[in-house]
Specification:
Oligomer: single chain
Largest sheet: 2 strands, antiparallel
Number of helices: 4
Number of strands: 2
Structural class: mainly alpha
Radius of gyration: 14 Å
Bound molecules: zinc ion
Length: about 80
């Protein structure tokens, strides 16, 4: 939770994390490997952390504000392709 909090304060890092920790053809994370070099099942821990951080920045936390509603609309526009599984 604390780590997700930190990530939510660092949009660049958060965005990069979301970009990098994506599933490969087998549904494993492209970035995460264990000590033996085996890919982690996606969504990996890092990805889940980043998703958590992103939800902290989501309009849910700003319900009722104009800025929140405006942000909600732009997020909707970019949300396509997130639920591919
Ligand atoms: Zn990962």
């Amino acid at each position: 939770m604390a780590l997700a909090n930190i990530l939510s304060e660092m949009p660049d890092l958060l965005e990069r994390t979301l970009e990098e920790h994506t599933p490969d053809a087998e549904g494993c994370c492209r970035e995460c490997r264990d000590a033996a070099g085996v890919s982690a099942t996606w969504p990996c821990v890092t990805r889940e952390l980043a998703e958590q951080a992103r939800s902290m920045n989501s309009p849910a936390a700003e319900t009722g504000t104009v800025a929140g509603r405006r942000r909600a609309r732009s997020l909707d526009a970019t949300a396509d392709g997130r639920h591919r599984s």
